[in-house]
């Protein structure tokens, strides 16, 4: 996957995650891209470990990448809110 696609999917996945998780966050569209990209890494890693053990691959179909990015971004955003609330 190219960097441009990673940024586009990260922006869309981060935006969807921000819509799914209640509350208001103060980071802009760059923070949303970072949230989506990190979420894609987390979701892809968890998906690889749960659904295909020992098959860590960076070449996934776009549907799996996108859904994994949304799930991972939601997880990252919930953890971010939890850590932020405790400080």
Automatic annotation (TrEMBL):
One of its GO terms (cellular component) is plasma membrane. Its main location: membrane. It holds the Pfam family Transgly_assoc. The keyword rRNA processing does not apply. Keywords: Cell membrane, Membrane, Transmembrane, Transmembrane helix. The chain crosses the membrane at residues 27-52, 64-83. It is found in: Cell membrane. It is a multi-pass membrane protein. Belongs to the UPF0410 family. This is GlsB/YeaQ/YmgE family stress response membrane protein. It comes from Nocardia macrotermitis.
């Amino acid at each position: 996957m190219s960097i441009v696609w990673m940024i586009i999917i990260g922006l869309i996945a981060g935006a969807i995650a921000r819509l799914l998780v209640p509350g208001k966050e103060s980071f802009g569209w760059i923070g949303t891209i970072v949230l989506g990209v990190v979420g894609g890494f987390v979701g892809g890693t968890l998906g690889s470990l749960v659904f295909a053990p020992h098959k860590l691959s960076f070449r996934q179909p776009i549907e799996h990448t996108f859904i994994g990015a949304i799930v991972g971004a939601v997880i990252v955003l919930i953890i971010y809110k939890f850590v932020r609330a405790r400080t």
